[in-house]
Design goal:
eight-stranded antiparallel beta sheet, three-stranded antiparallel beta sheet, alpha+beta, 283 residues
Protein backbone atom coordinates (compact mmCIF):
# COMPACT_ATOMS: atom_id res chain seq x y z
CA UNK A 1 0.00 0.00 0.00
CA UNK A 2 2.87 2.33 0.82
CA UNK A 3 4.61 1.56 -2.49
CA UNK A 4 1.41 2.22 -4.44
CA UNK A 5 0.96 5.54 -2.66
CA UNK A 6 4.57 6.51 -3.42
CA UNK A 7 4.17 5.68 -7.12
CA UNK A 8 0.92 7.65 -7.27
CA UNK A 9 2.60 10.65 -5.67
CA UNK A 10 5.58 10.40 -8.05
CA UNK A 11 3.25 10.18 -11.07
CA UNK A 12 1.31 13.31 -10.02
CA UNK A 13 4.55 15.18 -9.41
CA UNK A 14 5.86 14.21 -12.87
CA UNK A 15 2.87 15.75 -14.60
CA UNK A 16 2.38 18.72 -12.25
CA UNK A 17 3.28 21.90 -14.11
CA UNK A 18 5.85 24.37 -12.89
CA UNK A 19 6.06 28.00 -13.86
CA UNK A 20 9.31 29.06 -15.53
CA UNK A 21 9.58 32.84 -15.86
CA UNK A 22 12.05 35.58 -16.76
CA UNK A 23 12.05 38.75 -14.63
CA UNK A 24 13.67 42.12 -15.03
CA UNK A 25 16.65 42.40 -12.70
CA UNK A 26 15.97 46.05 -11.98
CA UNK A 27 12.28 46.27 -11.05
CA UNK A 28 11.51 42.53 -10.75
CA UNK A 29 8.73 42.69 -13.33
CA UNK A 30 7.94 39.41 -15.14
CA UNK A 31 8.80 39.61 -18.83
CA UNK A 32 8.15 36.01 -19.99
CA UNK A 33 6.92 32.76 -18.51
CA UNK A 34 6.06 29.20 -19.49
CA UNK A 35 4.47 26.26 -17.69
CA UNK A 36 6.48 23.03 -17.76
CA UNK A 37 6.23 19.60 -16.19
CA UNK A 38 9.04 17.05 -15.74
CA UNK A 39 7.20 14.60 -17.99
CA UNK A 40 6.81 17.25 -20.67
CA UNK A 41 10.51 18.16 -20.55
CA UNK A 42 11.45 14.47 -20.84
CA UNK A 43 9.06 13.94 -23.79
CA UNK A 44 10.45 17.01 -25.57
CA UNK A 45 14.03 15.79 -25.10
CA UNK A 46 13.20 12.31 -26.45
CA UNK A 47 11.37 13.81 -29.45
CA UNK A 48 14.31 16.09 -30.23
CA UNK A 49 16.79 13.20 -30.02
CA UNK A 50 14.61 11.03 -32.28
CA UNK A 51 14.23 13.83 -34.82
CA UNK A 52 18.00 14.45 -34.79
CA UNK A 53 18.66 10.75 -35.34
CA UNK A 54 16.29 10.62 -38.33
CA UNK A 55 17.87 13.72 -39.90
CA UNK A 56 21.39 12.31 -39.49
CA UNK A 57 20.28 8.96 -40.93
CA UNK A 58 18.81 10.65 -44.01
CA UNK A 59 21.96 12.73 -44.48
CA UNK A 60 24.20 9.67 -44.30
CA UNK A 61 21.96 7.61 -46.61
CA UNK A 62 21.21 10.15 -49.34
CA UNK A 63 24.07 12.68 -49.24
CA UNK A 64 27.88 12.37 -49.50
CA UNK A 65 28.37 14.08 -46.15
CA UNK A 66 30.61 11.29 -44.85
CA UNK A 67 33.04 11.90 -47.71
CA UNK A 68 34.05 15.15 -45.97
CA UNK A 69 35.03 13.46 -42.72
CA UNK A 70 38.83 13.16 -42.34
CA UNK A 71 40.04 9.61 -42.99
CA UNK A 72 36.62 8.21 -43.93
CA UNK A 73 37.15 8.37 -47.70
CA UNK A 74 40.44 6.49 -47.50
CA UNK A 75 38.95 3.78 -45.30
CA UNK A 76 35.84 3.47 -47.49
CA UNK A 77 37.95 3.16 -50.63
CA UNK A 78 40.14 0.54 -49.00
CA UNK A 79 37.10 -1.48 -47.92
CA UNK A 80 35.54 -1.21 -51.37
CA UNK A 81 38.72 -2.39 -53.08
CA UNK A 82 39.05 -5.26 -50.61
CA UNK A 83 35.45 -6.30 -51.28
CA UNK A 84 36.02 -6.27 -55.06
CA UNK A 85 39.18 -8.37 -54.68
CA UNK A 86 37.37 -10.88 -52.49
CA UNK A 87 34.50 -11.20 -54.97
CA UNK A 88 36.92 -11.71 -57.88
CA UNK A 89 38.92 -14.24 -55.86
CA UNK A 90 35.78 -16.21 -55.00
CA UNK A 91 34.64 -16.18 -58.63
CA UNK A 92 38.06 -17.37 -59.81
CA UNK A 93 38.14 -20.12 -57.17
CA UNK A 94 34.67 -21.30 -58.18
CA UNK A 95 35.61 -21.53 -61.86
CA UNK A 96 38.89 -23.27 -61.05
CA UNK A 97 37.12 -25.74 -58.77
CA UNK A 98 34.58 -26.57 -61.50
CA UNK A 99 37.37 -27.04 -64.05
CA UNK A 100 39.36 -29.26 -61.70
CA UNK A 101 36.27 -31.36 -60.93
CA UNK A 102 35.69 -31.83 -64.67
CA UNK A 103 39.36 -32.69 -65.14
CA UNK A 104 39.26 -35.31 -62.37
CA UNK A 105 36.05 -36.82 -63.74
CA UNK A 106 37.56 -37.11 -67.21
CA UNK A 107 40.76 -38.69 -65.87
CA UNK A 108 38.69 -41.24 -63.94
CA UNK A 109 36.68 -42.06 -67.07
CA UNK A 110 39.87 -42.37 -69.14
CA UNK A 111 41.39 -44.77 -66.63
CA UNK A 112 38.21 -46.88 -66.86
CA UNK A 113 38.40 -46.92 -70.65
CA UNK A 114 35.28 -44.79 -71.05
CA UNK A 115 34.66 -41.68 -73.12
CA UNK A 116 35.17 -38.42 -71.19
CA UNK A 117 32.21 -36.15 -70.63
CA UNK A 118 31.85 -33.05 -72.80
CA UNK A 119 30.28 -30.11 -71.03
CA UNK A 120 29.24 -26.93 -72.77
CA UNK A 121 30.51 -23.95 -70.77
CA UNK A 122 27.87 -21.49 -69.57
CA UNK A 123 28.40 -17.96 -70.90
CA UNK A 124 29.78 -15.70 -68.22
CA UNK A 125 29.82 -11.95 -67.84
CA UNK A 126 33.60 -12.20 -67.48
CA UNK A 127 33.75 -12.51 -71.27
CA UNK A 128 32.58 -8.92 -71.47
CA UNK A 129 35.36 -7.57 -69.26
CA UNK A 130 37.62 -4.93 -70.72
CA UNK A 131 40.99 -6.54 -71.49
CA UNK A 132 42.69 -3.44 -72.86
CA UNK A 133 45.00 -3.32 -69.82
CA UNK A 134 46.80 -6.40 -71.17
CA UNK A 135 48.07 -5.01 -74.44
CA UNK A 136 49.33 -7.73 -76.81
CA UNK A 137 52.79 -7.39 -78.30
CA UNK A 138 53.39 -7.15 -82.06
CA UNK A 139 54.85 -10.67 -82.17
CA UNK A 140 51.87 -12.04 -80.26
CA UNK A 141 49.43 -10.37 -82.66
CA UNK A 142 51.26 -11.75 -85.72
CA UNK A 143 51.29 -15.23 -84.24
CA UNK A 144 47.58 -15.09 -83.50
CA UNK A 145 46.88 -13.94 -87.06
CA UNK A 146 48.95 -16.80 -88.47
CA UNK A 147 47.24 -19.42 -86.33
CA UNK A 148 43.76 -18.05 -86.97
CA UNK A 149 44.47 -17.96 -90.71
CA UNK A 150 45.62 -21.56 -90.60
CA UNK A 151 42.48 -22.56 -88.74
CA UNK A 152 40.18 -20.75 -91.16
CA UNK A 153 41.91 -22.20 -94.22
CA UNK A 154 42.05 -25.70 -92.74
CA UNK A 155 45.83 -25.88 -93.13
CA UNK A 156 47.72 -28.17 -90.71
CA UNK A 157 50.02 -26.41 -88.30
CA UNK A 158 52.19 -29.51 -87.79
CA UNK A 159 53.56 -32.22 -90.08
CA UNK A 160 51.11 -34.91 -91.21
CA UNK A 161 52.66 -38.40 -90.97
CA UNK A 162 50.69 -41.64 -91.22
CA UNK A 163 47.33 -40.00 -90.65
CA UNK A 164 48.42 -38.25 -87.43
CA UNK A 165 49.79 -34.72 -87.20
CA UNK A 166 52.89 -33.84 -85.24
CA UNK A 167 51.47 -31.73 -82.41
CA UNK A 168 54.41 -29.32 -82.16
CA UNK A 169 57.76 -28.80 -83.85
CA UNK A 170 60.77 -29.00 -81.57
CA UNK A 171 63.40 -31.22 -79.96
CA UNK A 172 62.36 -34.29 -78.00
CA UNK A 173 63.85 -34.02 -74.48
CA UNK A 174 62.07 -36.85 -72.63
CA UNK A 175 60.57 -40.06 -73.98
CA UNK A 176 57.66 -42.20 -72.90
CA UNK A 177 58.53 -44.44 -69.92
CA UNK A 178 55.56 -45.68 -67.92
CA UNK A 179 57.82 -47.36 -65.33
CA UNK A 180 59.30 -43.97 -64.41
CA UNK A 181 55.91 -42.28 -64.46
CA UNK A 182 56.35 -40.48 -67.79
CA UNK A 183 53.06 -41.03 -69.59
CA UNK A 184 54.04 -39.01 -72.64
CA UNK A 185 56.84 -37.06 -74.27
CA UNK A 186 58.31 -33.62 -73.62
CA UNK A 187 59.27 -31.41 -76.54
CA UNK A 188 61.46 -28.30 -76.27
CA UNK A 189 60.05 -25.61 -78.56
CA UNK A 190 60.71 -22.08 -79.66
CA UNK A 191 58.73 -19.21 -78.18
CA UNK A 192 55.34 -18.93 -79.83
CA UNK A 193 55.44 -22.36 -81.51
CA UNK A 194 51.99 -23.40 -82.70
CA UNK A 195 50.36 -26.51 -81.21
CA UNK A 196 48.05 -28.60 -83.41
CA UNK A 197 45.52 -31.36 -82.87
CA UNK A 198 46.98 -34.70 -83.91
CA UNK A 199 43.67 -35.85 -85.43
CA UNK A 200 40.02 -34.97 -85.75
CA UNK A 201 38.13 -34.98 -82.48
CA UNK A 202 36.16 -33.12 -79.84
CA UNK A 203 37.72 -30.93 -77.15
CA UNK A 204 36.73 -32.30 -73.74
CA UNK A 205 38.89 -30.03 -71.60
CA UNK A 206 40.59 -26.66 -71.90
CA UNK A 207 41.89 -25.69 -68.47
CA UNK A 208 44.55 -23.37 -67.05
CA UNK A 209 46.50 -24.26 -63.94
CA UNK A 210 49.45 -22.46 -62.31
CA UNK A 211 51.62 -25.60 -62.44
CA UNK A 212 51.16 -26.78 -66.03
CA UNK A 213 49.77 -23.75 -67.88
CA UNK A 214 46.93 -24.57 -70.25
CA UNK A 215 45.88 -28.22 -70.57
CA UNK A 216 43.88 -29.31 -73.60
CA UNK A 217 42.31 -32.75 -74.01
CA UNK A 218 40.82 -33.95 -77.29
CA UNK A 219 38.72 -37.08 -77.65
CA UNK A 220 39.29 -38.85 -81.00
CA UNK A 221 37.43 -41.73 -82.67
CA UNK A 222 38.22 -45.33 -81.63
CA UNK A 223 38.43 -44.24 -77.98
CA UNK A 224 41.71 -42.35 -78.40
CA UNK A 225 42.58 -39.28 -76.36
CA UNK A 226 45.36 -36.74 -76.83
CA UNK A 227 46.55 -34.46 -74.02
CA UNK A 228 48.58 -31.26 -74.48
CA UNK A 229 50.19 -29.58 -71.45
CA UNK A 230 52.25 -26.46 -70.77
CA UNK A 231 50.51 -24.33 -73.40
CA UNK A 232 50.79 -20.57 -73.05
CA UNK A 233 47.40 -20.04 -74.66
CA UNK A 234 44.44 -22.21 -75.63
CA UNK A 235 42.38 -21.38 -78.72
CA UNK A 236 39.66 -23.97 -78.15
CA UNK A 237 36.78 -24.52 -75.75
CA UNK A 238 35.16 -27.71 -74.39
CA UNK A 239 32.67 -29.18 -76.82
CA UNK A 240 34.39 -27.71 -79.88
CA UNK A 241 35.13 -30.03 -82.81
CA UNK A 242 38.60 -29.71 -84.36
CA UNK A 243 40.26 -31.18 -87.44
CA UNK A 244 43.58 -32.93 -87.61
CA UNK A 245 46.32 -30.29 -87.84
CA UNK A 246 44.04 -27.49 -86.68
CA UNK A 247 45.67 -25.01 -84.31
CA UNK A 248 44.50 -25.44 -80.74
CA UNK A 249 46.95 -23.04 -79.07
CA UNK A 250 50.59 -22.05 -78.88
CA UNK A 251 53.43 -22.99 -76.61
CA UNK A 252 55.18 -19.97 -75.10
CA UNK A 253 54.37 -16.32 -75.67
CA UNK A 254 56.79 -14.68 -78.17
CA UNK A 255 57.81 -12.02 -75.65
CA UNK A 256 58.32 -14.46 -72.75
CA UNK A 257 61.61 -14.19 -70.79
CA UNK A 258 64.46 -16.47 -71.76
CA UNK A 259 64.17 -18.42 -68.50
CA UNK A 260 60.53 -19.28 -69.23
CA UNK A 261 59.62 -22.94 -69.51
CA UNK A 262 59.62 -23.75 -73.25
CA UNK A 263 58.64 -27.42 -73.00
CA UNK A 264 55.36 -28.85 -74.24
CA UNK A 265 54.16 -32.16 -72.84
CA UNK A 266 52.13 -34.48 -75.05
CA UNK A 267 50.31 -37.69 -74.10
CA UNK A 268 48.38 -40.18 -76.20
CA UNK A 269 45.86 -42.54 -74.60
CA UNK A 270 44.14 -45.54 -76.17
CA UNK A 271 41.26 -47.40 -74.50
CA UNK A 272 41.98 -45.67 -71.21
CA UNK A 273 45.71 -46.52 -71.17
CA UNK A 274 48.72 -44.33 -72.05
CA UNK A 275 50.68 -45.39 -75.13
CA UNK A 276 54.04 -44.32 -76.56
CA UNK A 277 53.34 -41.37 -78.90
CA UNK A 278 56.54 -42.15 -80.89
CA UNK A 279 54.95 -45.37 -82.11
CA UNK A 280 52.41 -43.31 -84.00
CA UNK A 281 54.02 -39.88 -84.49
CA UNK A 282 57.67 -39.14 -85.37
CA UNK A 283 59.02 -36.12 -83.50
Amino acid sequence: MKIQKTLSTWWREAFRKRRLSLRNAIDGAEEWHIHLSPAGVFAAFVSFALLLFIVLLLLVAYTPVLEFLPGYRTEATRMRESLVRDVMRLDSMERRMNDMMLYNENIALIMEGKTPVVRTPIPSDSARLDKTLVAPSREDSLLRQRIERARNEGQPVGRVVGGLVTPVEGILTERFNIEEGRLGVRVAVQAGAGVAAVAEGTVVLSLWSPDTGYIVQIQHPDNQLSIYRNLAQSLVTPGQTVRGGEAIGYAVAPDAPEESNRVVEFELWNDGKPVDPERYIPF
